[in-house]
Amino acid sequence: MTTSESPVSEPLWRRAWGHAVLVAIALACIFPIYWLLATSLRRPDDVGSLSPIPWPLSLGNYVDAVEKVDVIGLLLNTFAVSAVSAVGQLFVALLASYAFAMYSFRFQRLLYLAFVGTWLVPFQVTMLPNYVLLYQLGLINNLAGVIVPTLCSALGVLMLRQHLDSFPKELVAAAKMDGRSSWSILWTVVVPNLRPALAALSILLFINAWNEYFWPAVVLQRSNSVVQLGLRSFMGTEGNDWGPMMAVAGLACLPVFALYIVLQRHIVNAFVRSGLK
């Protein structure tokens, strides 16, 4: 006699508890962003209000911010620095991981461990040598000085190497039989199949560069050329100008949100399907 076993359903109270925990975590993550936007939309005289709903709404803080600092210029400079840094790191990581995954050469493992080992070195250790080198090159107080030391990412090499290790080697072998060069195979065979992984890594690198405060503060000592340093313009010895500061901080979130929306499908594919179909 056969008996049909019905799947054991999870108790209702356990599912409700799980959803309640998730909702609480989501609210804890969203609340700081909501409070930032709410404060930026209050009237300038109500910035210190603890009312959870800003009413009446006002764009006065945004107007004050635009009058006091070059908000558009700060956002464009920050976007340029972040984009160039992310693209440079992505390009270097792609070439390095392709070489480590597709070729065999002497001391390959040792070189890979040395390359990835740089990821474990704290930034504070390399900060002073980088600063001295930039000073000798005349790149202090220059946006190029912010970008150049960040063009190589050991994290990017590590992540792309993992994807390329599982890449079908038969495709590469078939391309070689067709007479394609290594450079052609990289851009016509490998890169199209790595688009989800590249998209996920690019947004991670872009966000890291966008949120960086310490290194631009070290290099750009006499100017507030990026938005993170521009926020210091609203901080003074007599107090902080919270309204315009919140307005600029809210505007600084928009490019990252836009980039995530554009690359959302590729990012989900990369994390859920390990980047390869």
From TrEMBL:
Q: Which GO terms describe its biological process?
A: transmembrane transport
Where is this protein primarily located?
membrane
List GO terms (cellular component aspect).
plasma membrane
Which terms are listed as keywords in the entry?
Cell membrane, Membrane, Transmembrane, Transmembrane helix, Transport
According to Swiss-Prot or TrEMBL, what is its membrane topology?
Multi-pass membrane protein
Classify the source by domain of life: Bacteria
Where does it reside? Cell membrane
| InterPro entries xrefs | MetI-like (IPR000515), MetI-like_sf (IPR035906)
Q: Domain ABC transmembrane type-1 spans what residues?
A: 75-263
Q: Where are the transmembrane segments?
A: 16-37, 79-103, 110-133, 139-160, 185-207, 242-263
What the record says about family reads: Belongs to the binding-protein-dependent transport system permease family.
Identification of the protein by name: Sugar ABC transporter permease
> What's the source species for this entry?
Rhodococcus oxybenzonivorans
